[in-house]
Structure formats: structure tokens, C-alpha cells
Amino acid sequence: MNTTTESPFRVSRSRRVERLVEGMPTQDGAGVKLVRVLTQDLQRRLDPFLMLDNFRSDDPGDYIAGFPDHPHRGFETVTYMLAGCMRHRDSVGNEGLINSGGVQWMTAGRGIIHSEMPEQQDGLMEGFQLWVNLPANLKMTTPGWRDIPGAQVPEVISAEGVRVRVIAGRAHGVTGAVPQGSVDPVFLDLHFDAPGSIDIELPPGHNAFAYVYRGSLRVGDGAVPQQRMAVLETRAEADGVSFRADAPARAVLIAGRPLNEPIAQYGPFVMNTHDELMQAVRDYQSGNFA
Ligand code: FE
Predict the structure, then answer these.
(1) Does residue 290 form part of some domain?
(2) Full-prediction pTM beyond 0.90?
């Protein structure tokens, strides 16, 4: 673990909460129960992010069937496990195990077929899957994949004891585990084990949101209850966002530079045009993925 002492950052003007979004309970894969926090109607507003799912259950019936072989093209998937264990296998030949606190960052690019299956028969499984769009010139890039074990995710602890796990981007001078790409993503996991506050710097042009998955938080000037996503205003004069907890709480903060390109989605394919989607379906059906 890479815990570093904070070099303090204070916002001069915090982003404010634009709206609160309640996730939608749904099922995906072979019947895994989850909450879809970022749904398709928010893709433009939260460009470059396409989807955020939160799964949490200690009932194996909710997750044991997993996500058998399925394709992706045109974007990246980020899986962040809070509890439990998930095995990944793909058509490129990669295989890996994501454990508690670990991250998998997969670039589907021109096409990949993979499975994501629980590696446990019982106990709690909890985590997130985020979809990050790729710019037009990288949608057909070579598929890539990286596993970051929990122990290799850098952390910074503030003077008030707030722990920030830096999955991507930067926080208080600490650089995340995932190299910066075309949208310079920020993906932080904030742990308040006691009352406390912390300010986080964000590039002003990034679209950003926070999802509170334990307890409740004040984000900017707004109260955000448990299991709500706060869409944060994108404003040039705000240099970051402030968080305050009055009791133990946890949240992920996610931000990225918008691509401002057309978004065409058909299930697990996300391209710029309808024709490109049809091509993706043809390529998949004729076995032309990686
Ligand atoms: Fe997948």
C-alpha cells in the first residue's frame, strides 16, 4: 500500500450539486442483480462516461451466475471490487482475478469477448463497473487489459484522517494507478471513517459526479444521501469539490474530459454512427473480434 501524507489542497470555489439521481435496480449478465446508477439518458450530460453499475449482495443467488462470454467494442470498462472476487477471461488470452480493493481497466477497442465470473460461492460481493467512452480515433484500437491489485492502488490520507484511494487521476499530489488516456479520467474512492472533510481538485472542464455508497455526505453545498449520485456542475470558476461527513461514509468521485462526439449505442457496442454499430454486429457475428 502506497499511503502518503497529504499536501493540503483547498478549493477556492467548490462545484455544486446540479441534481441527485437515484439508481435503477436491474439485472445484467446471466441475471446478476445490480443498481444502474448512470443510465443511458445521462450519457450526454456526463460525457465521456456511458454507464455506472453498483452491485452489492451477500446472497449468492444475486450474483453467482456472473457475466458469461459477451462482446464489447468502442469503449473501456473499469471494474472496481470493494468486496469479493471476480475472474476475468477474454478472447485475447488474458486472464486475471480482481480481488477486494482491486481494479481492472479493460480497453475493448476494436472488439473483445470476455467473461466476468464470481470466484466465490458465498459471502459479500460488492463493487462498481464504469464504462468510459473512447474518442472516434481510438474506438478501433487494439484491445488492452490491465489488473491492478488492491495493494497497488495508491492512497493518500488527509490530516483529518480521510482516506482517498486514487484509482485514476490525481489527488493531493498522488497519481493514480491507471495512466492518463484520452479523457484524463479521475476515479477516486473516498473513505470517511469518522466525521471529517476534504477538498479534491478537479480540472474545470471535466464532467464529474459523486456516488455515495455508505452513509451520507455534504458535497459542495448539497446533502447527498446514501445510494444517490450527485451530478456536479461543470463550471469554469470552480477548481474542485468539497466533501464533508458528519458520520462514517464512503463515496466514489468520477470525472473526465468530455469527448463531444456523437454517441451511438447498441448494447455492448458504443460507436459514433448507426453504420458503425451495424458493422460491429456483423464483425461479431462473423467471428471478427479479437
Ligand atoms: Fe463485460
Answers:
(1) no
(2) yes
